[in-house]
Amino acid sequence: MKYRLKNRHGFTLVELLAVIVVLAIIMLIAVQAVLPLLQNARKNAFLVEVNNALDAAQTYYATKAITGETIGSGKCYSLDTLVSAGMYTTKKDTYKGWIEITPSSTNKNIYLYKITMTNGQYAVIGKGIKDNNNVAITADEVEETSTISQPALCTTS
């Protein structure tokens, strides 16, 4: 005996629920895989901005030295100073921080860099660089915190 399904249009409620449950499980697995990648991308984007700020401060410091500004024992530049000088561009109020540059006590041709910077989620706090050939902050030096305080050298400059 053959049955004809003349009036069967579409899917049953159980079939639709089964598809929704399978899709929900797939979504949960996908989100678990993608979330760490997004966090890593945000951290790396912050790291790029930190290193761009370091480069801007290095350029600004050299420009000031060439034009005859007295450097003395060192300078501290806020990100706002670098932005207003046209050395660094960023979204307004996204990043906050300072870069300290001081000449080495043993060799006046080597400069010591110390950066304190945050974007509200990640921060680099007082990390220093002692090698002029490799001025860069690495991912290991980025912390998950939003609070930073102004370095001592920056309060007097």
Lay out the secondary structure.
Elements: H1 13-66, E1 75-78, H2 79-84, E2 96-103, E3 111-118, E4 123-129, H3 152-156
Antiparallel strand pairs: 1-2, 2-3, 3-4
Largest β sheet strand count, sense and barrel closure: 4 strands, antiparallel
Oligomeric nature of the chains: single chain
How many domains, in number, for the residues?
1
Query: Low-confidence parts lasting 5 or more residues at pLDDT below 50?
Result: none
Spatial order of strands in the largest sheet: 1-2-3-4
Given helix and strand content, the structural type is alpha+beta
- Report strand %: 15-25%
> What average pLDDT do the residues reach?
81
Q: Please state the CA-atom Rg, rounded to the nearest Å.
A: 27 Å
Shape: rod-shaped
What percent of the residues sit in helical stretches (DSSP H or I)?
40-55%
The N- and C-terminal alpha carbons lie at a distance of 96 Å
Count of helical stretches: 3
- State the total count of DSSP E strands: 4
Can you write the helix and strand succession as a string? HEHEEEH
